[in-house]
Amino acid sequence: MTLAYNALNLPDVFTFTSVNPNNRIEIGYDAGGMNLEKQVFTGLTLSIHKRYVGGIEYTGANLEGIYHAEGRLTPNGANFRYEYTLKDHLGNSRVSFAANGTAMQVLQENHYYPFGMEMRGSWVAQSGTENAYQYTGKELNEDFSLNWSDYGARWYDASVGRWNAIDPLAEDYLNWSPYNYVLNSPIGSIDPNGMNVIINFSTINGKSHIEIVYTGVLIDKTGTQSQEQLTAIQDGIMKQLEESFTGESDEMSWGITVNLRVGVSAEGTGETRESTINLINDPSGSSTHHNGFDADVALNTFTGNLFQTAAHEVGHTMGLPHIIEADVENKQYIGQVPLWGFIDEENPIYGNLMFPGSAPKTIRGGKVLESQVHNIVDDFNAKRLNKEGEEGKGSTILWGNSEKDTPVYKFRYSALLKRQQLLKYK
Question: For the chain, which domains are there?
Answer without folding.
Answer: 2-163 (no CATH), 198-425 (3.40.390.10)
